[in-house]
User: Fold this.
Amino acid sequence: MGPLNGVRIIEFAGIGPGPFAGMMLADQGADVIRIDRAGSTPGMDPSTDILNRGKRSIALDLKNADDRATALKLVATADALIEGFRPGVMERLGLGPEECLKANPKLAYGRMTGWGQDGPLAARAGHDINYISLTGALHAIGQRDNAPVPPLNIVGDFGGGGMLLAYGLTCAIISARSTGKGQVVDAAIVDGTASLMAMMYSRFASNGWKDDRGSNLLDGGAAQYGTYRCADGQWISLGALEPQFFAAFVEAAQIDTKVYGDRNDASQWQRQRQLLEQAFAAQPRAYWEERLQDIDSCFAPVLSLSDAPKHPHNQARATFFEDYGVVQPSPSPRFNVTPSSRPTRPPMPGQHTEEILQELNKG
Assistant:
């Protein structure tokens, strides 16, 4: 089930953004066949690797000519391919775009890298933190006059990488179905992260964004947009930017607006933040949840990984589910005509080798 039912993706085993793109496509019904390395030892328990849920696995030795031929046969049956090696690796294996598009002219050949297929850094090693450094994203995140704060590896690997690749492959599949021609999708994390920064660059160009972190409306500079520690050490988030939301907040929190001053005056933000810090620190988080959660004040508790799935809103929407003992995010987005099925558990490497080989032989 799902809007991608009938679409086949061949994913060459990797880590991070490539498997995440494969998970997104599998979540929506695509038949994602992951080619795992024969005889490899997984770095983590395969049964808890959420990024591999909903997929099938075949184990192949790509240094073996017969196994490479099998991989190419699989590619010939697919709509798209995902690979996340450094530039040139797939070509040396004889599985580069030229060979794969010859075997399957309609193939969407997805390449997931940090720096891209060309450019001075293309062959260099790197990680999420390095890629987002070159786009202005990391520089913009953190408190003023303090070090930049790595936003986990969400912005680069998954937002600017995996999601970009899933989007690119979907575009290329649609194009191939109308033109009959496949193509290479060069999904570089540095490019995708730059795209995520479009609004900031727009504001920067119109003098609406300072090139100093912690000095702007949406980066924690404004007192009414930030996080605050409560009396019990728990945290809340506040995003009362618009006048009506700010008015609702100060009324519920019993903040004296005359003492607070003009919320749009950046010169007062530091003093205003101190006022809010004192107010929130006077009561535990439960107090603020009871006082603020039922009014439009743009407030939310900052929940941990263990607490988030228990929140009433997340439970009402089934934002998370538990299967085979693993709590995990549900597939998204949601479709009302072609809803996604619950993903199957991640396979053991090579679990479906015989099944897939039988399918190839029948074909």
